[in-house]
Design the sequence.
């Protein structure tokens, strides 16, 4: 079985990390996997570092389509990791149809256009990263048997020593190492809702002068969030580091990890926090409640509730026994339910079942 993983994003986010993790683990398990991605992208660089065969695609759509059309017939399955990749795969296989598997990681329903209805009808199977995303797709009109859930996973074995993590935060964002640090790792876009995090930071730091916040990531809202930070009087309390490659490695620098998303898939960076023994406070956006079980593996607040998120963070800062219980339970659950080996095997089994049905037809 030859599988071509397809992801044409030009940036590096959680979905790109999952693309590499899945393809590399499947290859380790004996599957013939290749990644088709944008030439010169962070994704291409990461895949090559992991020894994954890469097909670099041009960034211009017609050229990318032509390049993919030439190689697609030699693969048994095309596994598309983004909506754009899905569209590209469909167009590239019009002349010679190939089975297409789609991973869906966001809890936004696709627009109900004629093209999208054809696009999702043409895919053999839609794999959602959590039940919340699957619920949206089933409600969108896809047959229940065409939609399933495979939870994502992280390795949890690549964290840097705490002092090295603190040094990176100092160098990149001026984060003081002598304070308690509440960390956030996410792209700066509307659905991550760092504005709520900043308002929560205002409440937390008013009660805990020994605490600062580190926001790791970059994106379209950077200038807007910096302006809000200044308006809230948090210049010496909230530090923006910009994008840090493999940012999950610096998780040990944090005393609490906070996510403030209004919309979310499964949010695998939360798994990294738990595996690094960092307690999690988060808003209940998208699939996060399937990841963070309130009062069992972390603390949840309603979406957009800055005061509720602040209370959760303050509890974690003040109650070490609670933190130890939450992280212990979270790690046990991750090892039991969210391993990379299991995730990769489930995808491989889906490919085999898909090819079996195609042969029967």
Sequence:
């Amino acid at each position: 079985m030859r599988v071509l993983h397809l992801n044409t994003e030009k940036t590096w986010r959680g979905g790109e990390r999952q693309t590499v993790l899945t393809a590399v683990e499947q290859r380790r398990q004996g599957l013939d996997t290749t990644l088709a991605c944008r030439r010169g992208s962070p994704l291409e660089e990461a895949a090559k570092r992991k020894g994954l065969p890469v097909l670099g695609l041009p960034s211009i759509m017609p050229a990318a389509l032509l390049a993919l059309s030439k190689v697609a017939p030699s693969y048994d399955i095309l596994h598309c990791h983004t909506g754009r990749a899905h569209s590209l795969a469909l167009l590239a296989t019009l002349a010679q149809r190939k089975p297409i598997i789609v991973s869906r990681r966001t809890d936004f329903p696709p627009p109900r256009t004629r093209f999208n209805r054809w696009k999702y009808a043409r895919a053999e199977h839609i794999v959602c990263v959590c039940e919340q995303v699957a619920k949206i797709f089933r409600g969108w009109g896809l047959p229940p048997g065409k939609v399933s859930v495979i939870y994502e996973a992280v390795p949890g074995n690549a964290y840097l020593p705490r002092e090295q993590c603190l040094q990176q935060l100092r160098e990149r964002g001026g984060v003081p190492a002598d304070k308690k640090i509440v960390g956030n790792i996410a792209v700066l876009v509307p659905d991550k809702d760092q504005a709520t995090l900043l308002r929560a930071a205002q409440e937390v730091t008013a009660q805990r002068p020994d605490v600062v916040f580190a926001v790791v990531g970059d994106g379209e809202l950077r200038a807007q969030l910096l302006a809000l930070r200044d308006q809230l009087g948090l210049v010496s309390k909230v530090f923006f580091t910009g994008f840090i490659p493999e940012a999950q490695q610096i998780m040990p620098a944090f005393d609490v990890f906070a996510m403030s998303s209004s919309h979310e898939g499964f949010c695998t960076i939360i798994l990294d926090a738990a595996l690094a023994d960092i307690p999690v406070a988060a808003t209940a956006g998208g699939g996060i409640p399937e990841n963070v079980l309130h009062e069992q593996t972390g603390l949840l607040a309603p979406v957009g509730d800055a005061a509720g998120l602040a209370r959760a963070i303050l509890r974690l800062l003040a109650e070490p026994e609670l933190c130890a219980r939450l992280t212990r339970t979270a790690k046990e659950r991750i090892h039991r339910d969210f391993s990379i080996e299991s995730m990769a095997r489930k995808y491989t089994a889906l490919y085999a079942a898909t090819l079996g049905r195609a042969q029967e037809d």
